[in-house]
Amino acid sequence: MNLMTVAEVAEFLGVPESRVERLAREHLLVASDKDSEGKPLFAVDDVTRYKTLAERLGGL
């Protein structure tokens, strides 16, 4: 499974890192694991599906 860091997700979605962390806290984007610093890691497929859904609902 390919995992993305908060910074990679933020870049992919075009949003600030703080927004990605908030999405994870609110369980709108579910983290698959955590790194050594305790920050969430996200599955590439989940992030891609989230982006598609968000765009269909009116944008990120």
TrEMBL record:
Q: Which residues form the Helix-turn-helix domain?
A: 3-50
Annotated InterPro entries = DNA-bd_dom_put_sf, HTH_17
Q: Which domain of life is it from?
A: Bacteria
Pfam families in the record, alphabetically? HTH_17
Full protein name: Helix-turn-helix domain-containing protein
The organism that produces this protein has a lineage beginning with: Bacteria, Pseudomonadati, Pseudomonadota, Gammaproteobacteria, Alteromonadales
